[in-house]
Amino acid sequence: MFTKGAAYNSMIRIFGMFLMVCAAFCVVLTAYAQPMSRKPGPRYFEDRIPYPVLEPAAPKKLRKPVIVIDPGHGGHDPGAIGAKGTQEKKITMSAAKELRDLLTASGRYRVMLTRSSDKYLEHEQRLRIARAGGADLFISIHADSTGNKAARGASVYTLADRAKGRSKRIVKSQNWIMDVDLTEQSDPVGDILVDLAQRSTESQSEQFADILLKNLSSQTRLIGNSHRRAGYYVLLAPDVPAVLLELGFLSNAQDEKLLKSKSHRKKVLASVTKSIDQYFATKEE
Ligand SMILES: [Zn+2]
Questions:
Q1: Residue 104 belongs to domain with CATH number
Q2: Range of the domain at 246
């Protein structure tokens, strides 16, 4: 028998269940509403430390690459003396300034010379200038000389493997700051850091030398085996990609004449500029 009282009780029960469902729904909604409105990020920052607002990503490479040009010799050191008496230090200075002007005119680089007057700089000072200036590329300019008067042509030097130990010793003796201060590190850690920097720098120097020789070959004569390796001091910084460019042989009368010619130098230096452009273009890819 379905009585009026029983129907009333059923209604109360159904209403009660409805209220319980509503309450449960509210609890669930409250629990989820908070996380949905929370900023993304670690929970423990919430309500205590404002979540850091990230700046929009800066455009890649706003800084202009720094090119440090090193005119070889200077002051009391004239360098090689040409067949007709030309001093290497004068050729290197003219070429360095002409290259600086070409690079500056492009507007793409910050250019520094290690010396801009006829003064002698120790090799160590030349490297210190490059490192202090944040050089992305270091080019030391020279002109060759040899007893064989027939030898002609330009060449490019990068650091020889055998000189890497010397490079490490200089880093330590000069207390050069790499990623960390090496004097604070045990030797193995310091060596690993220098090794890493050296490996990266070496591959960049080699890459630039390859580009440079390819472009030079279309503008001037190269000697055989034109990519050479040596332990020259100016190539020793483990964190500065560097080449030493020998523009030609002052001991050869024809090369001497060419090196003294502004129009010849302009042609050669235009190919150096083109090489620098191509080298840095590979870094923007
Ligand atoms: Zn020289």
A1: 3.40.630.40
A2: 67-284
- DSSP for 77-122, written as a single string: B---B-TT--BHHHHHHHHHHHHHHHHHHHTS-EEEES-SSS----
0.85 cut: is pTM over it? Answer: no
Query: 201 C-alpha vs ligand 1 centroid, how far in Å?
Result: 23
Measured in angstroms, how far is the CA atom of residue 150 from the centroid of ligand 1? 18
- Is residue 3 domain-resident? no
* DSSP at 144: E
pLDDT tens for 1-42 read 455 667 777 777 877 777 777 677 655 555 554 444 444 444
As for how many domains the chain has, the answer is: 1
Residue 176 in any domain: the answer is yes
What separation in Å is there between the alpha carbon of 88 and the centre of ligand 1? 7
Contact predicate 131/241, CB 8 Å: no
Residue 65: alpha-carbon gap to chain centroid: 8
Residue 136 C-alpha to ligand 1 middle, in angstroms?
22
Q: How far does residue 73's CA lie from ligand 1's centre (Å)? A: 6
